[in-house]
Amino acid sequence: MLELTGLTAGYHGGTVLHGLDLTVDAGSVHAVVGHNGAGKTTLVHTVAGLTRPSAGTVRIDGREVTGQPAHRLARAGIGLVPQGRRVFAGLTVEEHLRLSHRPPRRGDTARPGVWTPARVLELLPRLGERRTNRGADLSGGEQQMLALARALLGSPRVLLLDEPTEGLAPVLVRQVHELVVTLAAEGLAVLLVSPSPAQAVACARTLTVLTSGRMTLRTSGEDARADPTALRAALELTATDNG
Ligand SMILES: Nc1ncnc2c1ncn2[C@@H]1O[C@H](COP(=O)(O)OP(=O)(O)OP(=O)(O)O)[C@@H](O)[C@H]1O
Ligand SMILES: [Mg+2]
Question: Whose CA is nearest to atom 13 of ligand 1?
Fold first, then answer.
């Protein structure tokens, strides 16, 4: 579904992401973990077309889309939930939903991954209750739901989530994980940047540890759940670190 080969990207001539290979299958969650500055957001931005790769390829369903601008990639099936949510303070929930809705092209309506504002509100009923509230008046959890709603309204095939649980209370973290697993079960390919290995193993089929822009570990969620030693070692966590 999403296939990255040798993906290399950076800023102002400096390389941040060094030749990353990574695939996300439809119906599964691939989590990426790594310390601050490891290049997780750079990875997500490069896939979403917000940063241009200097080498490597991005393929969606086998079709190469490398280096295309963000609006083209959105049409090709990439949905992004950005780090920090980025909702508009002055717009209501309803206005966000209306502006984000991209009606499917003709012939595409039967596809199971097609989203409408009504379907989004069924999945995220809290947003319905807050319909007339402005972005600035929403709680962190509600803003996160709104950011997810905006991405879904583009009817993506690949969903990129950049630390969607950052700053949320544990009960909301669990809710976000449940949503992510539900969306993957419906056939989406989900690339989840996770703030902690514990959160990543909770919902991922595959995990990648990114260290200074390079993959230093790839493991299955199942193996990491059974024995997190390798995962913790790759992140250089000590016994007293939680995560
Ligand atoms: N727009 C930018 N211009 C220049 N350098 C940048 C830019 N964005 C990120 N960087 C640099 O690229 C490196 C990777 O940053 P990135 O934001 O991808 O890391 P991250 O893993 O997402 O970190 P965090 O966990 O803090 O979100 C860092 O050294 C950062 O300073
Ligand atoms: Mg980041």
Answer: 37
H/E segment holding residue 30 = strand 28-33
* Those residues with Cβ within 8 angstroms of residue 75's Cβ, 6 or more apart along the chain or in another chain: 102
Residue to mutate, 41, 166, 212, ligand 1, most ligand atoms under 8 Å from C-beta: 41
What is the domain count for the chain? 1
Establish if 227 belongs to a structural domain. Answer: yes
Tell me the pLDDT tens digit for each residue of 4-47: 999 999 999 799 999 999 999 999 999 999 999 999 999 999 99
Domain residue limits at 197:
2-86+156-234
Which strands form 63-64's sheet, in the order they lie side by side?
14-24, 2-11, 55-60, 63-64
Helices (H), the chain: 40-48, 70-76, 93-100, 117-123, 125-129, 140-152, 170-185, 197-203, 221-226, 229-234
- Ligand 2 centroid–CA 98 distance in Å is 28
133 within domain boundaries = no
How far does the centroid of ligand 2 lie from the alpha carbon of residue 111, in Å?
A: 32
